[in-house]
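User: Predict the structure for this protein chain, please.
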Amino acid sequence: MKVCKSKKMNTILRWCVCLLAVCFVMQPASIMAKSSKRVIRYNGKDYVYTKSQVNVAVNDKAVKTPFGGIILNNISMLPAYDTFYKSELGTYYEYDEISNELTLETVDTAVRLPINKKYMYVDGKKKTISQATIKVYDKNTKKTRLMVSGRDVANALGFQYEWKNSKVTSALYTEEYLDSKDDEMDTDTPQEDNSNNENPDDGQIEEPDKDQNNDGEQPDNNTSDEEDDTDGVSIPKTYALKIPKPEDMAMDSYETDDNYWQKEFTITFDDDYSEFYDENSIIKKKSNVTNVSVSQDKNDCTQVVLKTSKIQGFRITETKDALYVEVDTPQKIYDKIVVIDPGHGGSDPGAQGNGIAEKDKTLEIAKRVKEYFDGEEEYKVYFTRLADSVSGMTAGSSGVKDSRMSLPARYNFANEINADLFISIHLNSFGSSANGTETYYSAKNTNKNDWGITSKELANRMQKAIQNVINRQNRGVKVNSNLAVLTHTNMPAILIETAFVSNKTDASILKNPDKMDEVANAIYDVIVGTFE
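Assistant: Here is the predicted structure, written as structure tokens:
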């Protein structure tokens, strides 16, 4: 009986296995193939990609990518970020969403690729490419990549390109690596496999849905620069502008002017290079530069003018072939930032007496301070004005009705550029007998800069230095929390009352150019000393 029961059970089990097998075989083909499907999205549509995934190798080393390359219209399209930026090639990479352009650059060559266009710009010159650059979203990995024509872009950047058909691999090589290799490379073109791929018509690329993950596409430009080296000069990869140079242009043959009130930065060359710049484009790589123009000044010297939407810092790196201009917030460009505020100006003369108008004398002192700092690359000194009237800053100018309204303009100016120190220069007036020097700070301003300096400490240092020059009554350091430029600044801030215009002896000191130069020198020395 036990034997018969065992045979019966085995028979039942065999029938169950067969039934399950039949059920599995009869599942719809769409379910069976689901795990092998790859759905990608570009040009605003979803496509089932059934061709082989393209592998990427640089100098015979596999490059890790989120979903590999694709073959489109018989062209191997590679993920630009992984292939050119993250690999040993180490090219500069930037995608500008405003202009919808991708920029890839080596030390020698810059390539701009407008998205969805069958052309590129190589060092400013337009060239046709085999396949338009596209933005691809892979639904399996939930990653987005800009895909470029591997052969066209690699060759444009000066890299050797090889298609390895048997391995379905786009291989890229640097000249340095090839010099150490004696192996010959074949140069087959990609071969289409027999699977079907629905190739879309060219059209505008649609951004991935908001719930789709776009991480990994754009490198972080706020991290420390990776640098290339040419002619012994390190070129930061975060520069905003590349200005090519004529072959006959000598090094350091230019001057710069930072007109930060108008948000303009001008580079003036020492000769006429207008024909050269008619044929050679200046490459703009960052959206914080809103406009670049080339013109001639009254001396027929070529000028390159950069315009920005807000106050920016600028730094130039020069090689024998080009000027590389970094443009970023002042705090990211400069180590030590100071704001000098010559009091009053425009329709506001300030204190007056003994033939002196306060606004004129504070401006004179500020200009003398500027002379001491000119050429000092370690410091960036901004001035609220270097003229009697500055639009948006002084009373009577556009947007500023009176002297009271000019005060927010001044402290907002200092706060916008994130200054380390704020020093306001003034003159005093109170009867004919009052005389000497005093310095104010606000008890409400408790800010301490990176060098550990507070407003009170800065005031003590400045009072001692100016008092030694004027050598009249030492009126000391005083607290005044009602002065707007001291209370509303986000950094240590002081206000110097240099001397009294109402006192004849003080006025004679203020009229002495040598003494005013000593005052400026004292201000300079205190500023430098606070950073040591």
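The first helix runs from residue 2 to 25.
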